Amino acid sequence: MTVLRHLKPAILPLAVILAGATLAACSMGGSGTTAIALSPGLSARMDQPGASLDRAQAIGMINAYRATNGLPALTPDAALDGTAQALANQYAQTGTPPRAPQDLTVMKLSAGYATFAETFSGWRNSPADAVGLRATAGKAGIAMAYSPTSSYGVHWVLVLDD
After folding, report:
1. Residue 34 DSSP class
2. Among 36, 124, 150, 148, which Cα is nearest to 158's?
3. What pTM was computed for the model?
4. Would you tell me how many other CB atoms lie within 10 Å of the CB of residue 60?
5. Where would I find the beta strands (DSSP E) of 56-99?
6. How far is residue 71's CA from residue 51's CA, in Å, rounded to a whole number?
7. Which of 11, 30, 69, 159 is 20 to 30 A away from residue 120, measured at CA?
8. Cα(51)–Cα(137) distance, integer angstroms
């Protein structure tokens, strides 16, 4: 920053913008996309009592993925959140994956990931789960349940429906 101190006041804002642009260019990945820091709601650890999932941010991450695949955004649905929470609680209590209610378009499960970002990455990188994330659906519900006595700790459920 010593260089910036020697610039005339009128040039300083331009120098700061150029420095920022240079740093942004340096953070570009090989694919030409800029790396984006995860919001705290997506990287918050859920493997502790009282942890609370930021459902809106989680659905937002799924919608960003869907947008890259040319699909419309999902609308968060409180009733589906309730269904997902009941299934996540059952999953955490029994350690057995629950069966999807027949009226749901898609149900995605996961266990053992501490954050939603890790969970989403697992779904996105699994061919079968990725297909489900791209399913034709209009509404979504998501939930997690933590069980300190479970070998997996955190249990995740995503449900999609029309």
Report:
1. B
2. 124
3. 0.76
4. 17
5. 75-76
6. 31
7. 30
8. 28
- Residue position matching structure tokens 């020697």: 6
Instruction: State how far the Cα of 36 lies from the Cα of 27, in Å rounded to an integer.
Output: 9
User: What token pair was written down for 19?
Assistant: 């420095």
| Phi, psi dihedral angles at 75 (to 5 degrees) | -95, 130
* CA distances in angstroms from 52 to 41, 84, 130, listed in the order given: 9, 14, 25
Over the stretch 16-61, which tens digit does the pLDDT of each residue have? 333 333 333 333 334 444 455 678 889 999 999 999 999 999 999 9
**b/e sequence 11-48, b meaning 16+ C-beta within 10 Å:** eeeeeeeeeeeeeeeeeeeeeeeeeeeeeebbebebbe
94-129 pLDDT tens trace: 999 999 999 899 999 999 999 999 999 999 999 999
Here the tokens at position 72 are 């419309």
Q: What angle do CA 15, 17, 19 make, to 5 degrees?
A: 70
Q: Does residue 155 register a pLDDT over 80? A: yes
38: tokens are: 């995860």
